[in-house]
Structure formats: C-alpha cells, structure tokens
Amino acid sequence: MNFTNPVVSVVVPIYNAAPTLNETLQSICDQTAKNIEIVLLDNGSDDGSTEIINSWAQQDNRIRVLRWESVIPAHENFTKAIESATGDFVKLICGDDLIDSTCISEQLEVMVSNPDISFCSVNRRIIDGGGKVILSRRGFRGRSGQIPRKTAIKRSLMGGGNLLEGTAASLYRTSAAKAALPFTDKYSYLIDLDFCIRALDHGDFYHLDKVLASYRVRSDSESSTMVNVQKSQLLNFVNELKSNGTIELSPIQKMIFILNLSLQVLARRVIYFFLKNRSSSK
To answer: Per-residue b/e over 144-158, b at no fewer than 16 CB within 10 Å?
Structure first.
C-alpha cells in the first residue's frame, strides 16, 4: 500500500435511484480527498438512473461504470461492488445516501495511522426523502478510538442494533473487505451488520465520533413495513453469534440487548409514522 498517497475506491451499487442519485454522486465528487476512484454499478435500472450515470461518467474521469443488463439480487451487486475496488481502501455508498465533503479524508487519516484497523466508521444523520435531517446517531457513547473486535461487536449488539454502521459511514481496508466477501441474503435486512462482523476477523474497529454521513429513509421505503422482520432476524443472528462463539452474553446482558432492541424498533416505528403523516399532509 502507498502510505504517502493511498487510493480510495468509492463503489456505488445502483438500482432505480434516479430521484436521489445526482445528490449522492455530487457528495462523492466533492470530497476533499482527491485520490479516489469511483465505480458505479448499474443493476439493470430502468428509471433514468442509467442516463444520470452516463452523464456523470462523461464529466469526471475518476468514474468507471459497470452495468448488468438484467437485475441481480442486491447482495450480489454489493459483492461485485467490493470486488471492483482497486484502491487501498474502499467505501460502499448506496444510491440515496450522502457523505460530507471531509468524510473520506478524515477516515483515511485514521486508517493510515492505525494499520491494525480493518475499518473506521463515523456517525450518521438520518434524513428524509427530501434531505431534511430527522435525527443524528452517535454510537459508542460519543467516544472516538480503537475498539478490539469482540468488544466492538458486543457493544454494538448490546445497543440493540448496528453501531458498527456499514455502507456510507464506513471506510474499509480493501484487503479486509474482500476477505469478508461475499455479502449474503441469509439475513436480508442485516447484510451491513453481517459484513461488518466478518470484516472484523481481519482487524479491530475504529469509531470516529463525527457525523459525516447521511442515511436516507422515506415514507414509501420497503424498510418502513419490515420492522418486525428486522427484529426477528437480529434475534436469530445474535443467537447464531452466541452459538459459534463470536460473542458471549450473560442472561442479564441478553435481557439488556432485547430491551434496547425493542427501543430501537419503537424508534423506527415513530420515524416511519412521522414520515407517513408528514407526507400525507402535503
């Protein structure tokens, strides 16, 4: 790896993201870190995303386009996205999420200074379909620093969800990300968390306590109707991690996990209820 001028691959799996894609690509191209390659993976889009992708590729020579004529499952497109990375580090961003202009440069500084880190995550703000901020998340009690693998996994799960973040909020060492492949659909609503935990087989975690990424939720999002499925999958996933020795939870810790998970589910329901009501009132 070139420590003096490392290359970051920003990979963007895209499927019918036309309403938000320009904003996402603008946030990537506006990064203060300039030594980046941008790989756009068009998963058979038919909503105008292809034309947007082609327009951006003509404007910026850092952009490389891969296109599938027929739609493949999302987890397979995510896998191909990471496989396409040629840089020393890789960030995966979905076609409706955003990163602040200094996001990559600040994470890159952490990764270069800490060679035993597999990935670094920042905090995310939750935004609605129009980009208005709903709330900002702060994981790991608002502290920055390196966290050993098992501690990071346990703290994340004890919080009732994925404090490791993933996608736009995370910058991976490419070697660790590729070693963690493939993405799977065994837990279809936990592919971020599952992948993050496998990436931690190859180094520790670093939490950078700055809000530098945005995750978009919409009132018409499929996830707004799948809260119960997410909860069930997370319970099963934690039981699997316990059985294979990845984590250890005492009975009291298991109770705390379930309590925090229930609070997270309630928070999601409130957010989606708020978005639906606001959308219907317009």
So the answer is: eeebebeebbbbbbb
Residue 275 has pLDDT above 90, yes or no: no
Assigned token pair, 51? 């034309």
Interior angle at CA 112, CA 87 and CA 75, nearest 5 = 45
- Residue 130: count of CB within 10 angstroms of its CB: 11
d(CA 170, CA 92): 8
Query: Taking each helix axis from N to C terminus, what angle separates 251-280 and 149-158, rounded to the nearest 10 degrees?
Result: 60
What element of type H or E holds 214?
strand 204-216
Q: Give tens-digit pLDDT for 27-45.
A: 999 999 999 999 999 999 9
Place of tokens 């909860």: 231
DSSP string, 50-64: HHHHHHHHHH-TTEE
pTM over 0.70? The answer is yes
Q: Which two tokens stand for residue 266?
A: 């309630």
Assigned token pair, 134 = 């709903």
pLDDT tens per residue, range 205-247:
999 999 999 999 876 555 555 677 888 899 999 999 999 999 9
Residue 247 is encoded by which pair of tokens? 């984590």
All structural domains of the chain, each given as residue ranges with its CATH number in brackets, are: 8-280 (3.90.550.10)
Find the range with the poorest average confidence among 99-113, 125-139, 167-181.
125-139
